[in-house]
Amino acid sequence: MTEEILKDENNIIFENKLINNKSILKKRLSEIPRSSGCYLFKDNDGTLLYIGKSKSLKNRVSSYFNNYKELSPRLSLMVRQITEIEIILTDSEFEALNLESNLIKTNKPYFNILLTDDKKYPYVCITWSEKFPRIFITRRRRNRNNQDRYYGPYVDVGLLRSTLFLIKKIFPLRQSKLSKSFYREITGVDLDKISSEDYKKIIKQASMIFQGRNEDLVKLLQKKMQFFSDELQFEKAAKIRDQIDGLKLLTESQKISIPDSSINRDIFGIISKNNISSIQIFQMRAGKLVGRIGYNQEIKDFTEEEILQKVLEEHYINVDNVEIPKEILVQFEFTNKKILEEWLSDIKKSKVKLLTPKRNKKFKTIELVIKNAKLELDRILNGVEENQLALDDLTKILDLGVSPKRIEGYDISHIQGSDPVASQVVFIDGLPSKQNYRKYLIKDNDVFLGHSNDYASIQEVIYRRFRKWSRFKKDGGDFSEIFNNKISALDNSLLSDWPDLVMIDGGKGQLKSAINALEKLDLIEEVNICSLAKRNEEIFVPGISKPLDTEINQKGLLLLRRVRDEAHRFAVSFHRNKRSSRMKRSQLNEIPGIGASRIRDLLEHFKSIEAIRIASIEDLLLVKGLGKNMAEEIFKYFHEI
């Protein structure tokens, strides 16, 4: 394999990072005033990493770089990537809070999400960026269009699924599993002829349910029903009546009565143990509990009050103003309570109160929220304990000496050599860390349609993955510092991407190929590596010809199987997407006069071949640079005119 083929796209440019250039960092910090305002951290590519606010910018920004190794892994990882700091001054802390809110909404920096893509709880996504928006449940809220809207994360997944099922029965959605003709018979709505604008009005009504506005929606529909009744359009009035009945059924299934007032309110509570906090938000509307949202967070760098306030801020940054209630109950008295009230009132355009009750029914409600947070925390901690037992067992099986905090799994996927790809999945503390997953396109010229070579592919991927660490070693880098960080009290496991264990999906052949790559890189002594063969779930390690002695249900083996299965799933998914994309492009290539750049523009605009197929000529003309003649050719191709 040549140097050019294995060019490492993730080469670390140490000298550009402020933390590695003390003179530039000192000068940059000296330029920052002590005024209030917002600070923006950027990386080497100019990408926004984090947006924050402070009444004393100099003190706040400096705090990130002073003793940064003592920060949490999340913040330490961020600081190590900062190459530029931008400052925006404001006249007050209140203005800074407003500015921060707007900047985060617009830019969505990665490190501003307190629980980035927390896989524990799902969200509901409405794809407003699409011509005909979809509603679906997801556990990812990044890497989508900024126009799309997320609700959650929801704690009760079963209730969420049943809610979405009923919504699809109440409203004429294109996602319904009913046939279009049957749907037309029972609803009177022709989904093939409905305009995008009219369809978005239907979705807007459905979205009110996820905003906790069921009663507002019922009142809206009642007025509409009365209008059709007065106009003697009884068939339309009857359809709306059925919608109202369905909504009332949904409302009753959603709500739990809490004897209190009719005021709309949200209640925030937190409880912590073993450096983990569980946060719950109860959404009460007209004295009824209509939603329960959950977060969890490591507590190392924050007090419970700070975490709860941060969750409150980020929650209301990401909701529509109609979702903010007039009254918010919080477990602690925030120091900047007045500023927060002004900020929330400004967003809602009406008065919002933050209350910290010490007695009466409101206090009892907070106690109920804390009780639920404790229940969820116990579940989290039990899971952590189970994972640690599995890690300890795996440590014994492989004779590692130190528990493998970061495990990487690799697999190859292709169909008879076509579209060959590889996956790298990462488990941290025994749990998937999907933000650290990586995909590889196999570049070996000897792998092509009709000729596969999994051994060569594995060797290529491992070589590319560890090549930068080979340079690190040649340049005199000290691996003992990395290894010591793994077991230090600071727990800086994410400060580097060095794995404690590498697992290859396969048997002795695949393992040998990975070992060959590590020997070429002179890293065979530093990397802990094994393979897991599917046939008999056997573990192989370097230097031993026979598989290790394990029991089929042993905790360590089960953990390794989870890593293997996840690597396989991720590789297959990437392969299918790549193959599908190639097939899409192949189909579009059949249209006379269309080239690669035009295909890219079409797919970026419409997202799928099916969307291009149903697009009108007017829709096609919205694509950047697409002329009328080409739009007519594309329309003609799909409609056989």
Descriptive labels:
641 residues, alpha+beta, GIY-YIG endonuclease, Nucleotidyltransferase, domain 5, seven-stranded mixed sheet, six-stranded mixed sheet, 20 helices, 19 strands, 45% helix, globular, disordered N terminus
User: Biggest sheet: strands, sense, closure?
Assistant: 7 strands, mixed
Low-confidence stretches: 1-14, 253-257, 487-495
* Helical content class: 40-55%
Q: Which CATH architecture of one domain is right?
A: 2-Layer Sandwich
Average pLDDT taken over every residue: 79
- The CATH superfamily of one domain is UvrC, RNAse H endonuclease domain
Output the CATH topology of one domain: Nucleotidyltransferase, domain 5
Evaluate the radius of gyration: 28 Å
Distance between the termini: 50 Å
* Global morphology: globular
What report would you give on this structure?
The structure is a single chain. The chain has 641 residues and is of the alpha+beta class. Among the domains are: 14-112, GIY-YIG endonuclease (3-Layer(aba) Sandwich); 265-380, Nucleotidyltransferase, domain 5, CATH 3.30.420; 399-579, UvrC, RNAse H endonuclease domain (Nucleotidyltransferase, domain 5), CATH 3.30.420; 589-639, DNA polymerase, domain 1 (Orthogonal Bundle), CATH 1.10.150.20. The chain is built from 20 helices and 19 strands. It has helices spanning 22-30, 57-65, 73-79, 93-107, 157-170, 180-187, 196-210, 214-230, 234-254, 304-317, 337-348, 360-398, 454-474, 479-487, 508-520, 555-588, 596-606, 609-614, 617-620, 628-639, and strands at residues 37-42, 48-54, 84-89, 123-126, 135-138, 149-151, 256-257, 265-273, 276-285, 288-298, 327-330, 353-355, 406-415, 418-428, 431-432, 438-441, 501-505, 529-533, 538-540. Strands 13, 14, 15, 16, 17, 18 and 19 form a 7-stranded mixed sheet that branches. The chain has a 6-stranded mixed sheet with strand order 7-10-9-8-11-12. Helix 5 runs antiparallel to helix 9 (234-254) and helix 12 packs across helix 16. The chain is globular and about 85 Å long. The two termini are 50 Å apart.
